[in-house]
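Hello again, I could really use a second opinion on something today. I've been staring at a protein lately and its backbone has me curious. You're getting the sequence in one-letter code plus the fold written as tokens. I'd be grateful if you could look everything over and explain what you see. No rush at all, and the record is pasted right below:
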Amino acid sequence: FIADFEAHVSPAMRASAVAPSHAARLTRTARKHHTSRRTVRAVAAAAAPVVGDKDTKRQHVVVVGAGWGGLGAAKSLCEAGVDVTLIDALKDPSGRTPDLTPSGKPFEAGTRGFWKDYPNIVSVCAELGLDESNVFTPYTASSFFSPDGLEATAPVFGDSLALPSPLGQVFATFENFKRLPLADRASMVGLLYAMLDLNRDEATFEAYDRMTAHELFIRMGLSKRLVDDFIRPTLLVGLFKPPEELSAAVVMELLYYYALAHQDSFDVRWIKSKSIAQLIIAPLCERLENDHGMKVMGGTFVSGVDVDEESRSVTGVRYRTMDGKEGEIKDVDAVVFALGAKGMKSVVSNSPALARIAPEFSAAASLGSIDVVATRIWLDSYVFVENPANVFSRFTSLRGAGGTFFMLDQLQKDTEVELWGGEEPRGSVIAADFYNGTAIATMSDEDIVKLLTDELLPAAVPGFKGVKAVDSCVRRYPGAVSLFSPGSYKKRPPLETSISNVVCAGDWVRMGEREHGAKGLCQERAFVCGLEAGNSLLRRNIVTGTGGVSGGAGHPVIPIRPDEAQVVVGRALNKQLMDTLSPFGLASPWIR
């Protein structure tokens, strides 16, 4: 659940006998995909124009936003021989400059995890020559803490006896719920059926999307205790809002990975040292800049785009820098918007022609977003916590927020001196984040740190009692994450828009026929959507590649593992039944 702001701004090490085999298997898979990718590109390149030919004009695409979506689009286009300018408000979106606190210690906005089914990101790591054992931790378990103590542990599912889904998940977690009665857990059966029904057809999906998750839980018979003790805190740190404010469809997409996907689909690991930006983003940007000429404009805000209304195409991108300078990139062949709701609103509100002729952008700009508060705390002594990834559940002092805390000294134990900014380590280092954190954000930095050190952490783990903070940093990210509210699906931006040379990328984008198995607020989905955005411009000949390593063709996209046979059969039988009942108005009577 806690893997992905933790994708946006986005689980003690699972030291087990089988964890190394997981890592080895993923490495082999990545190498296989990487070898296949090289072969495809070599064949395509042989028949493509030579890059640099004086008669070949390289086309130019501006990518707005340097998150996973923007990087995916940039990679697809650069490797096809297209000139790319990558614009982002971050001073150095290339990842080469460490993000430091005022005292010189490292900081990262949210602790982001990498799920088992992240084949495209894993493939990029292999392509860059990165050793997975140096980049990622082993898969780890996660703990849920309430004012009553430990509530539940999400295990490393791959360490348990492999069984068909959902039996494998039930068996792996049977003894992991410390207080939630079996009868309450069993009440989730109705929700499992709704998950099978979700994608029966587009109209059914949209009907679930119009419903709140809270309403669905009531209609499907989930117990109040199951929702309050387990599902609500899960959603607050997975989709960053409580069930009454979330689309039932998107909630089921998230919970699917816990309940119906492969037994080990929910397994997650973390960055092993430094930050994602330094270990993965920096070498990727370096390659795109050095080998393909990508231009990075950091500390730059897009203030609007110019649109030719007759041709329905964007012709220029206006921007201003952090020091107040204004400029424009003209003669643009295409634009990729790799933005969240907040960024989209800013661009659309300053681009009247875009808002006038392309209502899908105005719709996307109208969607809500969620505030996040991220903290790091350096303690004066070490505290033992069984698992390094943890969730706060049912604490009234959270003020409606979801909360997580990570033991960075456990996740990054081999580089502990770096965690202390070169100082001699004195104790544990905590990364604690609050989602749906609008109320928390109104508190002072000092009060937020005290809330953690004096109340939340000691209530969860008694070993924190009496431990003091020797340094801390609190940062607020207003509107950092997109909100999947009820009825939001149709308003989310499409991959391909009514403006011929504009595409969208990001985990909130509707991908249509290019839909991928990675769902929700997810780094893999954002990256894949970026790849597909670049591929779309190439496939529709909006821009034409001049060779490159892909021969001017699109970038390969690796699918996640297909659903298990019993899930596929269950969906097919449900569809057959509901299609039979539909003429009588009896199909899925709990939705409308």
The longest helix spans residues 19-46. The CA atoms of residues 147 and 459 lie 6 Å apart.
